[in-house]
Amino acid sequence: AAAASWAITSTLRAPAGLARASCLAGMGSANLEEVRKNAERMHRIYHPGFEFPEWSLRLIKDPESFERLAAAVTVYYREGDSKEEVMDVATFREPVNIAMGRYYDAKALGEAFGYSHGAYAKSSRLNLMPNIAIYCLTPMRRGDEWTEAHVINVIGFAFDSPQQPDYQYFLPCREGDAKWNELVARFSQMWRYIFQCARDKRLKRVYLADVGGGAFSGGLDSEGPGYLKLKDQSLGPILHEFSDIEVKQLPRIPDFAFSAEGRKKLHESLLVNAWDPWSMVGNGNAKDNSLDGFFGRCTAMALLCWPMTNPWLRCQAVKSMY
């Protein structure tokens, strides 16, 4: 594993209460009260109905359980990427960003944490901020039923709005040109995070989602070769390399976790969530009908996957595909 440090750049200042600590060192249980305060501050900043589940705030009040889950969280990033930028992308997250629509109080976010927009805003037409993934073992709830699930949150490249940095960086493109080849390589890197994580955590199977598909792929389908071709060219080599890991299509969340198959296989399986380059895990939660929203509304991943509420998370570099 490679340690990554929080770095405060010239355009992003340190959030209140955040120590300049290494990713591996953590801040320790003495700061659990600060973690609780940060969680409650962030919860209030969402527009009503978009916030992560209130029950996840109570998890922090059980230090033994929270620290057990928090210590398992792993940030995956490409070997060679700037560790400082990796931690900026993980730390400076917007509560909600749906197709560049921001459903939160930006002024309150700035006052509480020292930034109003996510670190992905530092991307340009010439350079993109790092693509990361975050694994966690999270509680999952359906009504009065509870379980725990292994989930990796991976970020597809966003082509749902011309305002997206990914859209401006890659499009238009054609199969075989330099931008297309780079996109295929970057998508392969994203898939690699999933299968490397499954191997690291000794999980037998992956329940795979069409990360970057659906609404996210709109521009790619109209101004490029399309998502299906991208998935085929980028995922195939990874499946071949990790052929020892079983792959199945991700069923409906959270219902699958409480089904007969889910109860039997969940402990040895990795579920894949299609995350966003800007937002907290879960994005718009109960008001977001994407996969990310369905995961967010039934888990504690918003808090477990954010360095401001999880100073125990670790970082893991993954072999570069480009």
Question: What does it look like?
Answer:
There is one protein chain. Helices cover 35% and strands 15% of the residues. The chain has twelve helices and seven strands. The chain has helices at 32-45, 55-59, 63-71, 83-91, 106-113, 165-170, 178-200, 218-223, 227-241, 260-265, 291-298, 301-304; strands spanning 74-78, 132-142, 145-155, 205-208, 246-249, 269-275, 314-318. Helix 1 packs antiparallel against helix 5 and helix 7 (178-200) crosses helix 9 (227-241). The longest helix is centred in the middle third of the chain and has 23 residues, at 178-200.
What is the element layout, followed by pairings?
Layout: H1 32-45, H2 55-59, H3 63-71, E1 74-78, H4 83-91, H5 106-113, E2 132-142, E3 145-155, H6 165-170, H7 178-200, E4 205-208, H8 218-223, H9 227-241, E5 246-249, H10 260-265, E6 269-275, H11 291-298, H12 301-304, E7 314-318
Which key terms come to mind for this protein?
322 residues; 7 strands; 15% strand; globular; alpha/beta; seven-stranded mixed beta sheet; disordered N terminus
Distance between the amino and carboxyl termini: 20 Å
Please tell me what the overall shape is.
globular
In DSSP terms (H or I, runs of 4 or more residues), the helix count works out at 12
DSSP strand content: 5-15%
**Regions with pLDDT < 50 over 5+ consecutive residues?**
1-14, 16-30
Described by strand count, sense and barrel closure, the largest sheet is:
7 strands, mixed
Rg calculated over all Cα atoms: 18 Å
Order of helices and strands: HHHEHHEEHHEHHEHEHHE
Helix proportion range: 25-40%
Number of strands: 7
Structural class: alpha/beta
For the largest sheet, list the strands in their spatial order. Answer: 5-4-6-3-2-1-7
Mean pLDDT score: 92
